[in-house]
Amino acid sequence: MYTGTTKNLAVIGYPIAHSLSPVIQNTALTGAGLDYAYIAVSVVPEELPAAVAGLRAMNFRGWNVTIPHKSAIIPLLDEIEPAAAALGAVNTVINDGGKLIGANTDVTGFIEPLKARLGETALRGKNAVILGAGGAARAVIWALLSAGIKAITIAVRNPKKAEPLAGEFRSLDKEHFSGGTLIAAVDWTGEDYLKALDHCHLLINATPLGMAPNVEVSPAVDWQRLRPEAFCYDIIYTPAVTGFLSQAVRHGHPALNGEEMLVGQARAALEKWTGCSGDKEAMLKALRNALKK
Q1: Which of 292, 206, 193 is nearest to 244 (CA)?
Q2: How far is CA 134 from CA 137, 154, 162, 207, in A?
Q3: How many CB atoms neighbour CB 151 within 10 A?
Q4: What is the pLDDT of residues 184-225, one digit of tens each?
Q5: Active-site residue, selected from the candidate residues 7, 70, 160, 280
Q6: What is the pLDDT of residues 35-52, one digit of tens each?
Q7: 106-118 vs 135-146: helix axis angle to the nearest 10?
Q8: DSSP 179
Q9: Rounded to whole angstroms, what are the CA distances from 205 to 90, 122, 195, 202, 256?
Q10: Are 209 and 220 in contact (CB under 8 A)?
Q11: 174 is catalytic
Q12: C-alpha distances out from residue 207 to 4, 35, 276, Å
């Protein structure tokens, strides 16, 4: 039952009706017995400053941020955590007594499921290939650098467009991590990409290829070149089994979709707001049930 003491949380974006965050977060809040309510709020870009001021004035404990506001919200906040500042993207805001702090929990959401399967230090000294160089890839690269990855190959259609991203993360690696990671952008139709597959321990699809409703498309992978033990990770969660993952499993590779990443970033945000991360399995069940509707 919601009362005058109920604390408020939200997700803001435009459009926002499709968001499954309320389902996931309210499941966690109810299960933990926390007196909070989580809602979705549609905010058009030109009204973002007014919306942030309003959420602060109404003493919302925090909110998630999704497209198209992840970068635009940064100047409106009082403090930005290092990962969010480096990535230029905030997906979580914490209202600490009127002080608005921006964070990025996509990094945690991506890496924790991997660590759960492969081990806390399993990525150290390993090689990763990332398909795509969009916004999702940025959080993936930061997460891999934090895990001590040895080399990252960013495979894209146009490597000239991706080279600035590679250069940016080479600088961030030196500033925040060891500075020893090899980061390169390559053409995913070229020989350098195939050579990267030869030595790949972790293959990640960070493109929207294969996402519903365009489930028939898939990024190009020469599965004969990929080492047998390579782990394949698709950050897409709808459909649960993309063409990329279907082919990975068919060729004997361990595989993971994006459901746990979505829930993981939600749990990390919830912990920042309440000190409780929520029941992972209950949140996953709620997500999967919502996807069936």
Answers
A1: 206
A2: 5, 10, 9, 7
A3: 19
A4: 999 999 999 999 999 999 999 999 999 988 999 999 999 999
A5: 70
A6: 999 999 999 999 999 999
A7: 50
A8: S
A9: 22, 19, 17, 10, 11
A10: no
A11: no
A12: 44, 38, 31
